[in-house]
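Weekly modeling sync, notes
Attendees: AB, CL, MP (scribe)

Item 1: holo prediction request
CL wants a bound-state model with heme C before deciding which constructs to order. AB pointed out that an apo prediction alone won't tell us much about the pocket. Agreed to run with the ligand included and paste results into these notes for async review.

Input as submitted:
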Amino acid sequence: MSRTIFAFVLAATLAAAMVRQEYPVSDDGIPQPPGFPAPVYRITSGTNNAALAALGERLFEDPILSADSTISCETCHQPFAAFAHVDHALSHGVEGRIGRRNVPSLQNLAWQTSFMWDGAIANLDMQSLSPITGHDEMASNLDTLIHKLSTNAAYPRLFREAFGTDTITVPRVLRAVGRFVAGFVSANARYDRYIAGKDTLAENELRGLQLFRAHCASCHAEPLFTNNGFASNGLRPNAALPDSGRYLVTHNQQDLFRFRVPTLRNITRTHPYMHDGRFKKLRDVLAHYASPQALDGHADASVRSIGPLSDVDRKDIIAFLMTLEDQ
Ligand code: HEC
Ligand code: HEC
């Protein structure tokens, strides 16, 4: 097997293990890893949970959701990259249209209180309406989409299995996809096993964890590595690609250039980094946080106070972040 194919198969297997890892399951069928808070996501009743997730999986992988049937959710959210788009700074949609933002990873969404870099969407079951209809993403007309699905050989039966009748509606499509992505759980990294007392961390990784708790965890809070809030981490606005962040949603001056605090789980697989994909390497990210003089005026106090970090500090924090890889 060539090295590239081997690497691909390995990555795909790891991604599958990440999704299929067994945890106790709530009544809603959402996994409950030990140490995690209660999930925010709730399934609306009157559905067959397993069939709903299976339908959602099929829709997630099917380019039928895009206007010209070329792009699926998976085209942008790649399973081997924790469902981000590896090596692409900005998203690529139908007819090669380039989006405005970097594709985020999809993990532990059932615990997330808002979605998108600016938190524009509050409900996971509504989220996929945005990519399905978005001009730079799948650009579908909803009537046409429902017609395509209703006349497809497989979908009417799959909707009947999930919902009891074979009527295909937009809310049903959205609920199925929402249910599927709510099941992407990462909670079995070496970090998690260390916390559970089942694994050890090396000295440099432990030092990295301490530094992380001192400088980063106020925003990237354990165990989800996000506090579900919005912040400015001091990035200078991108002149080529203006983006006011949370301000676009609230129109509150204080939210100018603030973005959703992203999770750092599987961060080694989801490069490039930040809402506009400006940093290729974790090294570049650490260099940013460790340069107080280069921070934007909007930076939150907790980022300003990080101060210069030595080379060893930066390396140790990165070593710790690597323990968040879920195998
Ligand atoms: C053309 C690339 C592209 C396609 C296709 C696409 N997405 Fe996305 N997705 C993105 C980008 C870019 C964002 C961030 C958008 C933003 O912040 O405005 C995103 C955000 C998300 C989020 C929010 C994640 C978070 O942490 O806030 C979810 C969930 C999601 N997509 C699921 C889906 C589903 C389900 C589909 C298929 C119906 C899909 N995406 C299709 C590019 C894509
Ligand atoms: C004040 C809150 C805050 C603090 C403190 C903070 N971050 Fe962040 N971090 C953010 C926000 C907000 C983003 C997204 C910014 C954007 O894309 O515009 C982010 C993005 C990142 C990303 C990129 C994630 C991705 O998916 O693209 C990494 C990696 C990261 N931070 C690591 C760290 C590390 C390491 C520290 C400590 C040295 C730290 N952060 C401290 C708020 C914070």
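Recorded for review: Residues 1-19 have pLDDT under 50 and may be disordered.
Action items: CL to compare against the apo run; MP to circulate these notes.
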